[in-house]
TrEMBL record:
Family matches, as PROSITE patterns: LD_TPASE
InterPro entries for the chain: LD-transpeptidase, LD_TPept_cat_dom, Transpep_catalytic_dom
Protein name as catalogued: L,D-TPase catalytic domain-containing protein
Signal peptide, first to last residue: 1-20
Domain (L,D-TPase catalytic): residue spans on this chain: 27-151
Family, as annotated: Belongs to the YkuD family.
Keyword annotations of the record: Cell shape, Cell wall biogenesis/degradation, Glycosyltransferase, Hydrolase, Peptidoglycan synthesis, Signal, Transferase
Length: 176
């Protein structure tokens, strides 16, 4: 009975985050394909900027705003049947999947890599690759439901985040 009640509560409860996202302080990820860099905005500040690798061609890594729908530790690489955690696994140690192009978070993602020397380049089939230590950090601090903006422009992360309302000046935070 307890299992049934818990299952019903989970099914009927709203998923994180409630309301519009991002709200001031909510995590938000920005990937800029022009610079092959990723910024994490959290608690109304840019928490960090990390070098990444993106698509071999401009159209492979989709642009737009997406939602993190899947997170996995030591992800299994289905395409070539490589076990999670194996040194030859090209997905590295973490998978943060998002719903680009109508997918379910298992096709496009931010993930580690077994070829960290390629970070900074245009080498992927559409995903965003990071150094394993960086993706582990981001994995810990962002929940499912976090928005991911992928863009290609010559503006600062700060300006992009302010435009998206993911970052506002401290004095602009409304008093509650």
């Amino acid at each position: 009975m307890r299992f049934f009640l818990l299952s019903a509560a989970l099914l009927l409860s709203p998923l994180w985050p409630l309301g519009a996202n991002p709200l001031p302080g909510d995590p938000y990820i920005i990937v800029n394909k022009a610079t092959n860099a990723l910024a994490v905005v959290k608690d109304n500040r840019i928490e960090g900027i990390y070098q990444v690798a993106t698509g071999k061609t401009d159209d492979l890594t989709p642009e737009g705003e997406f939602t993190v729908t899947v997170k996995a530790v030591n992800p299994y690489y289905r395409k070539k049947n490589v076990e999670g955690g194996a040194p030859e696994n090209p997905l590295g140690v973490r998978w943060i999947g998002f719903d680009a192009r109508g997918t379910d978070g298992r096709i496009y993602g931010i993930h580690g890599t077994n070829r960290e020397e390629l970070i900074g380049g245009f080498v992927s089939n559409g995903c965003i690759r990071m150094k394993n230590r960086d993706v582990i950090h981001i994995f810990r601090i962002i929940p499912e439901g976090t928005k991911v903006l992928i863009t290609k422009e010559n503006r600062s992360f700060e300006n992009i985040a302010k435009e998206r309302k993911a970052l506002i000046k401290k004095q602009e935070i409304p008093v509650q």
